[in-house]
Design goal:
This protein has 169 residues and is α/β, with parallel strands linked by helices. The chain contains 6 helices and 5 strands; from the N terminus they run βαβαββααβαα. It has helices spanning 19-27, 47-52, 86-89, 96-105, 133-137, 139-164, and strands at 4-9, 36-41, 57-64, 74-78, 113-120.
Length: 169
């Protein structure tokens, strides 16, 4: 299993909820590295447990509707700090922190490093494969942030490995 997971959530046919799938589609054409797994998953709730189990570091990409920011605003926060995302709470009313805790109680190894990159949505109810203009304009900046997250994670891993030093026999 690769150490870094970029998990793009959402629904491809619900206007701005397609943010995650659209980001995943753009990332598929980039060289992310052998240490990265990119997944698009139109799932939520209990189904997240299986996707997150045994992962080291996870970046969840999704749409969010807080009503406190302009559409297209990118939010970045650790999992559990804020979970009003459409994909992270609506399936059977289980949110991400609950799914993580349930996974731990079921004996799964759940990642302790989960960051969420969410785009403020304007419309997550209208059937459309095209996001609103503001959310569509946030895709490229989100990709830049994702590449920065991966760079930071790799640097942290190198620093950790150098502190541990060589393994002696």
């Amino acid at each position: 299993m690769r150490p870094f997971l970029v998990l793009c959530l959402g629904n491809e046919v619900l206007t701005d909820d397609a943010f995650g799938p659209l980001v995943a589609s753009r990332l598929e054409n980039r060289e992310l590295g052998d240490d990265v797994e990119l997944l698009f998953a139109p799932v939520a709730g209990f189904r997240l447990i299986e996707l997150l189990s045994s992962r080291q570091s996870v970046l969840i990409v999704d749409a969010i509707k807080t009503g406190n920011a302009a559409p297209g605003t990118l939010h970045s926060f650790p999992a559990g700090a804020l979970t009003p995302s459409n994909s992270l709470i609506n399936s059977h009313q289980i949110n991400l922190p609950t799914a993580l805790e349930l996974g731990r109680q079921l004996g799964e190894t759940m990642p302790s490093d989960i960051q969420v990159l969410a785009c403020e949505a304007e419309d997550i109810e209208t059937l459309s494969e095209t996001p609103t203009e503001a959310v569509g304009a946030a895709i490229d900046p989100a990709i830049t942030l994702i590449e920065g997250w991966l760079s930071d994670k790799r640097q942290a891993r190198v620093a950790k490995d150098s502190r541990q030093g060589p393994i002696s026999a």
